[in-house]
Design goal:
By secondary structure, the chain is of the alpha/beta class. Strand 4, helix 5 and strand 5 form a beta-alpha-beta unit. It starts with 10 loop residues before the first helix and ends with a helix.
Length: about 300
C-alpha cells in the first residue's frame, strides 16, 4: 500500500560535504575529451569526493554546445552510477532555455540541478524570483540556486532566496557572494534548506556559519583533502577543519590568479590528468602565473 512505502531520502540531506565543480576536459583542439572525463569521475569516486557538479562555470558551460552540455552531464551520471549525487549545471540567462536544459538534464538522470542567476540581463529581485520559480514550477527535480554576483552582475539577496525556499523543488543555494553573514540569515528563516559555499577561500567561515559543504574548484586538484576538510567541519571538529583550510589556502588562491577555469585546467594538465585544451575566449594559463600554481600544488602533494 502507498501509505506503507518507505519515503525517499530528502535530496538536500545528501548534498553536503565536498562537491567538485568539475572541469570539462578538452583536447588541444578544444573538443571534449570523453576518456579524460571518465577518468576524472573515477578519480573522484576513489578519492572521496561527495558529489559532482558538471557543466557549471568551471565546466565551461558558457562555451559548450547544447548537445555537448547534456552529454557531459549524462556521461558523468553514467560514470558515477548512483554512488554519489550528480548536480547538473543548467542555468542560463534565458528562463525558457534554463527550463529546457533542466528538463534535458532530468531526462539523463541527474539528482539535482544548479541554476545560476541570469547573467548580463541584470534582473531585479522580482525578476530573479520569477525566473527561479518558473523553472521550479516547470521541472520536477531538486534545484539549487547559485548566487555569484562577480560573474552575473546581479546579486540574489537573502530575502529573495528565503522567498524561493518556500518552493518544494528549490532545496538550497550555492552562495558565492563571500558575505558570510548571509548564511545565518538564510538558515534562520528557512527549514531544511541547504547552503553550500561557492567560494573556496571562504569555505571555513561559511561552514562555521552553517553551510554543510562546498561546490569546490579546489576539489578538482585536491579531492581527498577537500573531503577531509568538509567531514571535519560537518562533524564539529573545527580545529582540524581550520588546519586543513589553512593548508589548502595557497591552492584556493592560486586557482584564481586568472579567471576560472584557466588555472585549474592548467593545474590538472600539470598533474598529468588532462590535456591543455580550453575554449576561447578562455586561454591557457599565462607563463608568469604558472609558478604560483605549481608551487601551491607541490605544497599539498604529500597529503594526497
Amino acid at each position: 500500500m502507498d501509505d506503507m512505502e518507505t519515503p525517499e531520502p530528502v535530496i538536500n540531506n545528501m548534498l553536503q560535504g565536498s562537491l567538485v565543480a568539475l572541469v570539462t576536459p578538452m583536447l588541444d583542439d578544444g573538443q571534449v575529451d570523453w576518456s579524460a572525463l571518465e577518468r576524472l569521475v573515477k578519480m573522484h569516486l576513489e578519492e572521496g569526493t561527495q558529489g559532482i557538479v558538471p557543466t557549471g562555470t568551471t565546466g565551461e558551460s558558457a562555451t559548450l554546445e547544447v548537445e555537448e552540455h547534456i552529454r557531459v552531464i549524462e556521461r558523468v551520471v553514467q560514470g558515477v552510477d548512483g554512488k554519489i549525487p550528480v548536480v547538473g549545471g543548467t542555468g542560463a540567462n534565458s528562463t525558457q532555455e534554463a527550463i529546457e536544459w533542466t528538463r534535458a538534464a532530468t531526462a539523463v538522470g541527474v539528482d539535482a540541478c544548479l541554476l545560476v542567476s541570469p547573467y548580463y540581463n541584470k534582473p531585479t529581485q522580482e525578476g530573479l524570483y520569477r525566473h527561479h520559480m518558473a523553472i521550479a514550477d516547470a521541472v520536477e527535480i531538486p534545484q539549487l540556486l547559485y548566487n555569484v554576483p562577480a560573474r552575473t552582475s546581479s546579486d540574489l539577496l537573502p530575502e529573495t532566496a528565503i522567498r524561493l525556499a518556500s518552493h518544494p523543488n528549490i532545496i538550497g543555494i550555492k552562495e558565492a557572494s563571500t558575505k558570510v553573514q548571509r548564511v545565518a540569515e538564510i538558515l534562520e528563516q528557512t527549514e531544511d534548506f541547504c547552503v553550500l559555499s561557492g567560494e573556496d577561500s571562504q569555505n571555513l567561515p561559511l561552514m562555521q556559519a552553517g553551510a554543510v559543504g562546498c561546490i569546490s574548484v579546489t576539489a578538482n586538484v585536491a579531492p581527498r583533502l577537500m573531503a577531509q576538510f568538509c567531514d571535519a567541519a560537518n562533524n564539529g571538529d573545527m580545529a582540524t577543519a581550520s588546519q586543513l583550510h589553512q593548508r589548502l589556502m595557497p591552492v584556493h588562491q592560486s586557482l584564481f590568479v586568472e579567471s576560472n577555469p584557466i588555472p585549474v585546467k592548467w593545474a590538472l594538465w600539470y598533474m598529468g590528468l588532462i590535456e591543455k585544451g580550453i575554449r576561447l575566449p578562455m586561454t591557457v594559463l599565462s607563463e608568469d602565473k604558472q609558478a604560483k600554481v605549481r608551487e601551491s600544488l607541490k605544497a599539498i602533494s604529500s597529503a594526497q
